[in-house]
Amino acid sequence: MTCDNIAELMSPYLEGELPSGERELFETHLESCLECRELLDLMRETRTAMAGFPEIEVPPALLERLRAIPDRKTGLRAGLEWLMRPALQPALSAAAIFLTLFSFFVFNPDRGRIQKAVDLNFHRGISRVERIWARAENITQALAGYTDDILVSLSNLVRGDEE
Amino acid sequence: MLVKAYSKKIFNLAYQFTGSYEAAEDLTQDIFIKLYRVLPKYDFSRNFSAWLLTMGRNHLIDNYRKTKWEKVSRGAFEERLLGADPSTNPESSMMASESRSQVWRGLDQLSPDIRMTVILRDIQGKKYEEIAETLEMPLGTVKSRVNRGRLQLARILKKDKEMDDDM
């Protein structure tokens, strides 16, 4: 047996798994080879050292974190729950109505005509607002004129009484 | 219940594999998050403990390959192991502590697959058949990896001793 063969058989030898014939050959080689004997002793020492590594306790903070995992919500689930809050229901309903109307407009074959009608009504609305605004300005000016007349009349009246 | 039954096993495996207390905490948490995610897919014909250990082992090795923990020193955490030495004889305790410390550091020099095999066999004391099931590899491969790992560690120990003698 060569030293390489011996190295391959060291674990089975230490664990008592070598058949008797091989075991004898192994031991015969060891008697004459100091290097293999040393390596075997070191392997024994290595195994003893590793068997002596104690189990360590799990830190309590980690245990708490591990116990909390099943209650943890993933980002997507938490986001969905936030969206489904009762407080958001009116806003979601309004959004649904808006989207329905919007999709009706976008996918309607008469979309061009609807657009024109909307534009026409929009411009009519604007011109009506402009007319109301102009009329309101006239009224304001007329009222200002009346105010001046009333003030002049009142001051004449007061002066006539004094004389 | 899962946490109570398996957290210690997973935490110790992660600690022995990485040599870092903090990394072991993070990795244990990752493994449990993964466990709860894949639990509904668990095949009841399989041994649960082996299934979980396989998942843990895969996560540790994948994470090792992604992050490479070589930079993390095992030395800083050795005290946790050495401090827990139950031996009462101070001289033998010192020698045992020294070789444990050398072997602990030596684990860093083993490839992740061989390191995992040696940890399962020599630190956790598992049977070869269990390791083969956990690592999903033939029994002969497991045995040869364990032997290779032990030989590497023995040679590292030899080198350390020679260096100590020279000093």
Number of strands of chain B: 0
Averaged pLDDT of chain B: 83
Task: Give the helix/strand class of chain B.
Answer: mainly alpha
The number of E-state strands of chain A comes to: 0
The biggest beta sheet of chain A is recorded as:
none
| Share of β-strand residues of chain B | under 5%
Low-confidence stretches of chain A: none
Q: Please write the string of helix (H) and strand (E) elements of chain A.
A: HHHHHHH
* Rg of chain B, alpha carbons: 17 Å
The parts of chain B where pLDDT drops under 50 for at least 5 residues are none
Characterise the protein shown here.
The complex is a heterodimer of chains A (163) and B (167). Chain A contains seven helices and no strands. Chain A has 163 residues and is mostly helical. The longest helix of chain A has 52 residues, at 111-162. Chain A is rod-shaped, with a radius of gyration of 50 Å. Chain B has eight helices and no strands. Chain B has helices at 2-18, 21-38, 48-67, 78-82, 90-106, 112-123, 128-135, 139-166. The longest helix of chain B has 28 residues, at 139-166. The mean pLDDT of chain B is 83. At the A-B interface, helix 1, helix 3 and helix 4 of A face helix 1, helix 2, helix 5, helix 6 and helix 8 of B.
Short description:
The complex is a heterodimer of chains A (163) and B (167). Chain A has 163 residues and is mainly alpha-helical.
Compile the SSE list and pairings.
The complex is a heterodimer of chains A (163) and B (167).
Chain A: H1 3-14, H2 20-32, H3 34-51, H4 60-68, H5 75-83, H6 89-107, H7 111-162
Chain B: H1 2-18, H2 21-38, H3 48-67, H4 78-82, H5 90-106, H6 112-123, H7 128-135, H8 139-166
Helix pairs in contact in B: 1-2, 1-3, 2-3, 3-7, 5-8, 6-8, 7-8
